[in-house]
Amino acid sequence: MKVSEIHARQFAKDEYGGFEHTNVAGQNLLVYGGNRTGKTLTFNAILYNLLGPRHTIDLSTGRQNDVRLKFDDDVEFQRAQAGAMFRRNGTEETGDTAQDSFAEWFGDEIDGTINRSDIIKAHFLHSHIDRMPLSRLSKQDRLAIIRSVADIESQEQIEELEGQLEELEDSINEDREDRRRLIEDRQQLQREQSSAQNQLEKYVQLRELHESGELTEITDLLLSNEKIQEQLADLSREEEFLRQKRRSKQKQKSQWERYRQAERHSLIAEAVNDFVCPACGDRVDTELAESRLSRHRCPFCAVDDRADSLETNLDDKISRSEEELEEIESELEEITADLDEVDERMDELREQQPELSDVDGPIETVIRENDYEVDQIVAETTDELERYESTMTRAETALEETNTQIEDLDTQIEDKEDHYRSLAEELEEQRQASIEAEIDEFGEAWLDSFQSAAGEIGLEIRITEDGEIEIPGNESPRSYDQAGDLSDAEITFLNITFAVTLNDFARQSGLTDWKTIVLDEPFSNLDSEGEENLLEFIREREQQFICTSSDETFLDEFDKHGELPRHTIQSSLTRFS
Fold first, then answer.
1. Mean pLDDT over all residues of the chain?
2. Which of 93, 154, 395, 545 has a Cα at 20 to 30 A from 442?
3. Distance CA 344, CA 540 (A)
4. What is the distance between the alpha carbons of residues 494 and 12, in angstroms, rounded to a whole number?
C-alpha cells in the first residue's frame, strides 16, 4: 500500500498554503520548500490522515483540517473537520462509518501494549532528533514493538501454552469453589450429626431409665407432687430457651466474623457462585463476579450500576462488624451465666429429690409432652431411637463420602497446581527464548539495513534485554540513550533503517500492507557522503519514501517532487507526543 495522491488543502495553521500532488503513483516523492513553508506540516498532515489528530508529532492540529490521500489500489480516505470520507471499489462511506471502515482496511489491531497506530507512527521520522521513533519510544516499548511485528513460529506455541494455562486456572478455580461448597456441606452434616447424636443419647437414656424401672418412679413422683413438677418444667423450659438463644447468637457471631475477615467483593462473589441458574444450570465464577463488581456491575447479570446499593449495604456491615461482635460476645457471656444459674437450681432440686438425679431438661420435656404416661414415653423412645440411629447412619455415610470428595479434590487441585507451575515455567522459558529469537532476527535484519544505508558509520547494532540500543565505541559500547554518545547522522540512519526493518517485518507478519516511509528533512543531519548513501538506499528499497527538504539539489534525485507555496508560517507553541 503506497500513496498515489496527496491533497492537503488545509491543516493546522491558517498560513499553510497546502500541498497537492495528483501523480505520486506510489513512487518516491520529495516535498520541497524553503524555511517555514510548511514541510513539517505536510509531514504531519499525512500522519493526521492515517491516524487522526492525537497522533501528530510535536503539533496541535487545530480545527480547520482537510487532508485526503489516495492509495495505489484506488482507495481514498479524507479526514476533515466536516467529517470523514472513505471510498473503495466505487462505494463511498462518510462520518464515523468511514473512519471505522478505513481503520479496518488499513490494518489489523494488535493485542498488547503496542497497537497498530504505534507501528504506523514509527514509519514517520520527524526532523528533530528527539522526536524520532527510537527517541519517542521507551526502552520497553522498543522491545514490545519489535516483538509485535516479529513472525516467529514459537509464538503459536506460546499462545497455545497461554490458552492451556488459562483453561487450567479456570479449572482450578472451579475445583476450589466446589471444595468450598463441600466444606460447607460437611459442616452442615456435622451439625446435623451432632444434633442427631444428642437426640439419640437422650432416648438411649430414657430407654435405660425404663429398663431399670426408674422412669416409673420419676413419673410417679412428678404426678404426685405438682410443685416439683412445675419447678422442673419451668427450669427445663428456661434452659431450652437459653440454649436456643445461645445457638442463635453463635450463628450471628459466625456471620459477623465473616464480614470482619472477608473483603466486600469476595463476600458477594461467593454468594453469587452459590447460586445456580435455573435455566442453564451454570454458576458465575467468583473471579468473574469480583471483576464485574470492580466495574460497578451486577455480579450476576453484569448490568451497569446495579452493584452500588449492595456494596453500600455490605460496607456498612463490614464497618459495624467489630461493634456487633463485641455486643454479641457480651450477650453470649450473659446467656452462659444464666445457663449456669439454671444448672445450679436444677442441681439443688436433684439434691432435694434423688429420684430426679438422671433427669435433665431434654428428658423432662419428653416426659412432660407425653403427659407423664410411661407407655407413651416408651413408644416415642422406641420410634425415635430407630429414627435417629438411621439418621446417624446416613450422616456418617454422607460425611464419609463428603470427606472422600474433599480429599479427592485436594489431590486434584494439588496435581493441577503442580501442572500449572510446570506449564508456567515452560511458558516463561519459551517466552524468553522467543524474545531472544525475535530480537536476534529483527536485529540481524536491522543491522543489514543499517550497514547498507550508513556506509562507513554502519557499525554493529546491539539490542539489550532492557531495550538499550548500542553500537561499538573505541573503549566501550556507545548508547543511543546517552546524550552525545552518537552523532546526529548515526541517529538518523538508525531511525530510518529501524522504520524500514519494522515495515518489512510488519508486512511479512500480515499486520499491515502499508509500504511508505515518511521522512521530515532527513538530509539535514548528514554530510555529502551520508546524503549519497541515503539516496542510494532509498532508490534500492522496495518501500515508497516521501521526504521533505529545503535543498533544491535533491529535486532530481526523486521520481516525483512537488513544491510548497512560499508562505511564511509563524512558529508557535507546540505539544509533545
1. 85
2. 545
3. 107
4. 30
